[in-house]
Amino acid sequence: MTKQQITELLKHGWFEDSPIKGRLIETHISWVIITRAYAFKIKKPMQYSFLDFSTLKKRKFYCNRELELNKSLAGDMYLDILPIRQVDHHLEIGGNQGMILDYAVRMKRMSIAKQMNVLLEKEQVDINNIYALAEKIAAFHIRAKVIKTDPDLSVMERDFSDLMNVKDFVSENLGSDFVDMIENAVTQNSKFLKKHTALVKERAREGYVRECHGDLHSRNIFLYKNPVIFDCIEFNDHFRRIDVLNEIAFFCMDLEAFGNDTLSQVFLDKYLSLFPCAQTEDELKLFNYYKAYRANIRAKVNALRAMSAKNDSEKRHNLNEVKKYLRLMERYSEWNRNS
After folding, report:
1. pLDDT digits (tens, 9 = 90+) for 193-246
2. Integer Cα distance of 198 and 164 in angstroms
3. From CA 85, how far away is CA 207, in angstroms rounded?
4. Which residue from 14, 6, 145, 125 is spatially nearest to 68, judged by alpha carbons?
5. What's the Cα-to-Cα distance from 214 to each of 102, 229, 271, 294, rounded to whole Å?
6. How far is CA 245 from the centre of its chain?
7. Under DSSP, is residue 210 helix (H, G, I), strand (E, B) or coil?
8. First CA to last CA across the chain, in angstroms?
9. What is the largest CA-CA distance in the chain?
């Protein structure tokens, strides 16, 4: 579909014999239409090096893939896949008449008030929430399919060093101290990965690389009594088939980005008590490396957002995010160097 068709669907589209009357949330790879009862996620027709939604057939395939992969952690949030049709002079989600233009993943609408990042900002996440998440994620990882392939360390090293591509922008907008953080962290973590190559490969042989979620952070969690974890990565197996330590490092880094180091440690301790997948000092250093890796990626994403910001306020917000994640990355990198 095109953006114009999405606008038409919002304004004049129908679902189950009623006007849609929804609002739009747009990401770089999808449109999500929110209605009173449902959320309809539509993949944008695009192709990148890491993603291919370029044809209707591929978008349908990845809609079904998303539905299947999210069953384990999202409960009954994901409902079904529906066609989007041109019917006479209007667009319609579902139904049996008219030409199919695209497909939508239909989900239950969840309460924004229960979204974990919202609750973290309000300081309303407690230890019981963290225990529930640790139990659910550990159980998911324990039963997840083991991936028996040698990890491609060059990908992680390339991902880490990609941050160098935005250092001129960082220098211009944040100053030389933050450029120094980038250069030092890239150098230190490259050395760390080379030094611990055998450990990374050994963990893969021992079965710690598994079919994970791939995007485990607070925005993708609703804190109901039974936590709902959604938006598992469907479009690229490489992003999802990772060491379980890499997965939980993203979540712990996210908690620490909110200033919740204590909750991060509580989560790690509870998770490891249920799934003891890191028992040596070197494995804990690797966990710390993965936190630095995740902070690195968040810094780069926010730098790119700042570069394309539509106004000064948006640019300032994204630059503040860059500073936050660079400081976290530096902290993790220094911890590994000094330990």
Report:
1. 999 999 999 999 999 999 999 999 999 999 999 999 999 999 999 999 999 999
2. 26
3. 45
4. 145
5. 26, 11, 17, 11
6. 15
7. strand
8. 52
9. 68
Please give the pLDDT value at position 238: 92
Give Cα 179 to chain centroid, integer Å. 26
Distance, in Å, from the CA atom of 310 to the CA atom of 305, rounded to the nearest integer, reads 9
Whether 339 shows a pLDDT value over 70: the answer reads: no
Of residues 94, 98, 108, the one with CA closest to residue 34: 108
Burial 185-219 (b: 16+ CB within 10 A, else e): bbebbeebbeebeeebeebbeeebbbbbbbbbbbe
pLDDT in tens, 116-157: 999 999 999 999 999 999 999 999 999 999 998 888 888 888
Q: Mean of the per-residue pLDDT values for the chain?
A: 95
Whether 298 contacts 149, CB under 8 Å: no
The residue whose two tokens read 């611990």 is 196
- 53's tokens: 């939604």
CATH topology of domain 116-338: Aminoglycoside 3'-phosphotransferase; Chain: A, domain 2 (3.90.1200)
pTM: 0.94
Q: Evaluate whether 32 touches 40 at the Cβ level (below 8 Å).
A: yes
The contacts found for 121-128 with CB under 8 angstroms, 24 or more apart, are 121/258, 125/223, 125/260, 125/263, 127/263, 127/266
User: What is the token pair recorded at 24?
Assistant: 């739009």
Q: Read off the pLDDT of each residue in 6-28 and give the average, rounded to a whole number.
A: 93
Nearest to 60 by CA among 43, 38, 35: 43
The domain defined by 3-109 carries CATH number 3.30.2320: no
Q: Of all residues in the chain, what percent carry a pLDDT higher than 90?
A: 91
Domain positions in the chain: 3-109, 116-338
Long-range contacts from 25-30, C-beta under 8 angstroms, 24+ separation: 29/53, 29/235
Q: Is 109 in contact with 34 (CB distance < 8 Å)?
A: yes
